[in-house]
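TICKET: design request
STATUS: open
ATTACHED STRUCTURE:
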């Protein structure tokens, strides 16, 4: 019954393969349980309740992905959007965290309406193949950067250099370097569950060497949602002042989700011959509903997670992978000390290697036609160098339309691309830039 529901035969998968994939995805993204509340605390959120809200939103969204969309994608509050809310919306723009959650809620409602009207799927189909090929490549490099940074192999630079090599004398960094080679060897030997084996193995070794502390307790009870649940504030919402904030959050969440869905689906072999994801409305609706519910329970924009790529590489193809991830999130409400003990230098190496797998579509890109190549290139590099998937995609949309227009090839621009370029332009106009 379960195998038929999740179409195991269609995807040529199995319980073992999907369970390993689900555990792998969860372990590579479980940092969100700790990191998201810590970031939101800077905006005034109480950390304990924010932790519970983070897990609740992730579990609910991933369950919806499993049973409604039946895709191997995990859902959780977005990294990037949470930092934007905390440091830009609250600290720079001066809104309260309750007003910020209200903007996220309104963006979610708009997502639901556009998904029901199939506008979001129409816009997704409007994107040219050249840009669609760039999404998984850009996401792959982004994951690599995240993995290298989390592992300590690279670090923020000094004296004008944006980055430099990390402390290779550090035991944790040496473990991370060893982890990359361990993953590579296991993959070369075609060992099933290579990423999961490496993550668990490095974690245990790190504990044995005294680098990572063993959890002081295994079981814990989650903090109450009370202080953050239902705390929307509609003060100043019906003013022109509030409109730019809704536009920024809307465009960021829209582009992040769209790029992630297409990029992950391309790697999983789920796209059709036209480069589109069949029934894309379903995962988009899951994203929309979760983004609407997330601020109601006390956290920020949620959507498909890049780290799902690790589970896909481990063999995840159906919604059963998402179901495993959701169950683990639910368990983390009570076993948070155990499940969050995985250190960055244990899961970082897997993200680095997954970045390699995501580069494959680059061979399909047209480098001879600069009206296609330049927008794709900007999408790829800006996703990584700005540490923001949405900025890379919006830059790609605008540059594609401008290059086609100024070279007299405007007939190649789908009507939906004009709208995407306009939304992207509004995003850059209203974005609260900081030094």
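STATUS: resolved
RESOLUTION: sequence designed for all positions
ATTACHED SEQUENCE:
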């Amino acid at each position: 019954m379960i195998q038929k529901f999740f179409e195991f035969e269609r995807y040529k998968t199995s319980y073992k393969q999907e369970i390993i994939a689900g555990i792998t995805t969860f372990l590579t993204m479980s940092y969100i349980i700790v990191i998201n509340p810590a970031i939101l605390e800077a905006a005034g959120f109480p950390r304990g309740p924010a932790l519970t809200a983070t897990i609740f939103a992730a579990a609910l969204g991933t369950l919806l992905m499993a049973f409604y969309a039946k895709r191997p994608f995990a859902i959780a509050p977005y990294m990037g959007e949470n930092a934007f809310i905390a440091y830009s919306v609250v600290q720079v723009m001066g809104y309260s965290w309750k007003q910020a959650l209200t903007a996220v809620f309104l963006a979610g409602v708009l997502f639901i309406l556009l998904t029901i009207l199939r506008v979001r799927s129409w816009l997704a189909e409007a994107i040219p193949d050249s840009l669609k090929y760039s999404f998984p490549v850009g996401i792959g490099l982004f994951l690599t950067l995240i993995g290298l940074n989390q592992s300590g192999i690279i670090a923020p630079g000094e004296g004008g250099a944006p980055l430099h090599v990390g402390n290779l004398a550090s035991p944790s960094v040496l473990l991370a370097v060893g982890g990359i080679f361990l993953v590579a060897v296991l993959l070369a030997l075609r060992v099933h569950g290579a990423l999961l084996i490496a993550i668990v193995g490095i974690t245990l070794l790190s504990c044995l060497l005294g680098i990572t502390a063993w959890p002081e307790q295994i079981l814990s009870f989650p903090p109450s949602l009370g202080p953050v649940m239902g705390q929307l504030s509609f003060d100043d919402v019906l003013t022109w002042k509030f409109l730019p904030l809704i536009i920024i959050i809307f465009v960021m969440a829209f582009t992040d989700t769209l790029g992630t869905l297409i990029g992950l689906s391309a790697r999983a072999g789920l796209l059709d011959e036209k480069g589109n994801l069949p029934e894309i409305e379903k995962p988009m609706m899951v994203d929309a509903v979760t983004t609407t519910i997330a601020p109601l329970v006390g956290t920020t924009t949620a959507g498909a997670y890049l780290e799902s790529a690790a589970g896909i590489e481990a063999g995840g193809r159906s919604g059963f992978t998402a179901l495993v991830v959701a169950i683990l999130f639910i368990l983390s409400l009570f076993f948070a000390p155990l499940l969050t003990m995985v250190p960055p230098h244990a899961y970082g190496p897997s993200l680095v290697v997954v970045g390699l797998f995501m580069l494959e579509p680059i061979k399909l890109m047209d480098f001879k036609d600069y009206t296609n190549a330049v927008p794709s290139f900007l999408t790829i590099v800006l996703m990584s160098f700005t540490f923001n998937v949405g900025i890379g995609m919006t830059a790609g949309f605008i540059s594609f339309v401008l290059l086609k227009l100024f070279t007299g090839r405007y007939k190649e621009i789908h009507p939906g691309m004009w709208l995407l370029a306009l939304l992207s332009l509004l995003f850059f106009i209203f974005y609260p830039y900081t030094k």
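CLOSING REMARK: Strands lie at 75-77, 154-156, 163-165, 302-304. The longest strand covers residues 75-77.
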